[in-house]
Design a protein that fits this description.
- With 74 residues, the chain is mostly helical.
- A two-stranded antiparallel sheet has the order 1-2.
- The chain is built from 1 helix and 2 strands.
């Protein structure tokens, strides 16, 4: 009878250790995802807030606007 109790305690401890390990790994993956997202936002060039004399070309890059370009109606 004592063998069953000891086996049950060992299995319970192993299961608890596995669950704890799984939660730690999941939390670590979430933190790494947050860090990757922050690095991606930091490395991407910010969009200019006031375009002023800039226009977007076909590739989506901001370039100086030509002097004869029409004003964009607001």
């Amino acid at each position: 009878m004592a063998d069953f109790v000891v086996t049950g305690l060992i299995m319970g401890a192993a299961f608890a250790a596995y669950r704890l390990y799984d939660k730690v790994k999941q939390k670590q993956a979430e933190v790494e995802e947050i860090i990757r997202g922050a690095e991606a936002r930091r490395t991407s060039p910010p969009e200019p807030r006031d375009l002023g004399q800039l226009a977007r070309d076909e590739a989506g890059v901001y370039v100086p606007a030509s002097p004869n370009a029409k004003e964009h109606p607001h």
